Amino acid sequence: MSFMGLLFLSPIIMVVAGLLKLDGGAVIFKQERVGIGGRLFQIFKFSSMASEESNRGVQVTAENDSRITSLGRFLRKIKLDEIPQLYNVLMGDMSFVGPRPEVPRYVAIWPEEDRKNILSVRPGITDYATLYYHDEQALLARSEDPEKVYVRDIVPHKLELYRDYVRDRNFGLDIRLILATIASMINRKRRI
């Protein structure tokens, strides 16, 4: 399905890649994430920042981050920056649905039981937390210290949502989450 998705979306992929190249920046952003069993892998996204130092400093991005380009802001708003993750699904690093893969820095602060439980399934492109925190960047932008808010307020709630998904996961739930994600993306496009 991920191969068919990449094939179907190839015209969009080519247009976005061309626009990013014309914008003078990188086309693909890679970042180390934690996958199933704690295995590290490189997640792929369309580049949305002028300077993407993926493994240093604060690893959360607020909506008002000065590094985000105008094209990147648009791609993030309608989640087109996530399309390259279909390649991660194709390679077996990710699934369509599952807890979002996190950077090692934040997984390290998860309680041991959550690491064991949540990392027992393949991470996904979408899940409960993706839908709930569809405006996470805007939420972080309202804070003086986005990373502190992320660690203190958002991570504990995301862990709860990840635990709920791992406990309840089944094919029917995955289909409902995929459809809800598509509906959410369509609604965002209409507002732009």
Uncertain residue ranges: none
Structural class per helix/strand content?
A: mainly alpha
- Gross morphology is globular
Number of discrete helical segments: 10
| Strand-residue proportion | 5-15%
Could you give the order of strands across the largest sheet?
A: 1-2
User: Could you give the distance between the termini?
Assistant: 29 Å
| Cα gyration radius (Å) | 16 Å
Mean pLDDT: 89
Could you state the order of secondary-structure elements as H and E? HHEEHHEHHEHHHH
Instruction: Give the fraction of residues assigned to helices.
Output: 40-55%
Describe the structure.
The protein is mainly alpha-helical and 192 residues long. The chain has one domain. It is built from ten helices and four strands; from the N terminus they run ααββααβααβαααα. The protein has a two-stranded antiparallel ribbon. A hairpin with a 5-residue loop joins strand 1 and strand 2. The model has no long low-confidence stretch (mean pLDDT 89).
Itemize the secondary structure elements and their pairings.
Blueprint: H1 2-8, H2 10-22, E1 28-34, E2 40-46, H3 70-77, H4 85-90, E3 95-97, H5 104-107, H6 112-118, E4 124-126, H7 128-132, H8 136-141, H9 146-168, H10 171-191
Parallel strand pairs: 3-4
Antiparallel strand pairs: 1-2
